[in-house]
């Protein structure tokens, strides 16, 4: 019905809804969390390491929730789960406004993690996998890029709001707005697949072409989780996920890093806005490069750009222009979590048991958040500088380049053993 009127497959309207939902949850709530750290630390006299420890609490519950989040998405109405999740995540932001001790952040990190994990990690891949039998990579790229656009709009606004009205009022405004917008987007755009209503996956006709079933076989080729877990490629990918997330986690500390370099809080908000624009550009370019030069080469290029970015932050951060350049380049690394990570999983292990393999190696993402976020904070708390953390990031970027080669060598062994089918 909608297809005949608008000449657009309903899968693309699902993507519009996802862009709003995930963009607000990730670009609006999660990414703006870093802007609150410095003013909270100063007003309540809480050490930066102690305060950022709440991110680790959230990461622990993210790790626990990932174990069954996918099953919830299969069993219950995903629209209800989305609404409940934003109430938890946005509600945690509202609750933060009334806290006076660091324990408040530790407590409300739990609903923040449960709601945020479902909205930023689960719902996008699940719905895109359901609705897109073709162009799923493009859909992921658009989803990630849109999160950057929303973040680019929200970050400067939040930075100015904190400066003008304080961090408590800003928490409330952002939390309430997020809940309202996500609930509306869910009601308006998100639908279930239904043959009776003519709601089929995009590209289903192409997927069904050919009586020999060649397309179906191609889509389901690969290895099982049991086989993958016995390969060097699996553990190399797990390490890659761990370090990729550990590297990207530094973005939480960037506003504090910028302020510590002598810039204003308002400039820090503007810088994050520039970074989010970089995410838009990087996401779209990574998607194109992934198709043109392959996932392996794209992943290596992203790590190299990360090395250049961190080098600028270490040795040329006195210039506002160079900070902008560094953050745009760093966006190629952070965008990798949403595009390169799932693409590497598919490239290395195929689609036979993709969701199980991806959710398992995603443990590396959660563990990295537990370790890296407070580690950077404590480095700053005890040394007064982020230099030690930045040098550690350089090492992790180099290691990631090495493990990419190890992973693809492991894939060759699986193919030679006849385990890929």
Automatic annotation (TrEMBL):
Localisation per UniProt entry: Cell membrane
InterPro entries, A to Z: MFS, MFS_dom, MFS_Riboflavin_Transporter, MFS_trans_sf
Location of the Major facilitator superfamily (MFS) profile domain: 11-412
Membrane-crossing residue ranges in chain numbering: 12-31, 51-68, 80-99, 105-128, 140-163, 169-190, 234-255, 267-287, 299-317, 323-345, 357-376, 388-408
Pfam families referenced in this protein's UniProt entry, alphabetically: MFS_1
Matches recorded under Gene3D superfamilies: MFS general substrate transporter like domains (1.20.1250.20)
UniProt KW keywords: Membrane, Transmembrane, Transmembrane helix, Transport
First-listed, main subcellular location of the protein, grouped into a coarse class: membrane
Species this chain originates from: Sporosarcina siberiensis
Protein name in UniProt: MFS transporter
Recorded topology in the membrane: Multi-pass membrane protein
The keyword Membrane appears for this protein: yes
Organism superkingdom: Bacteria
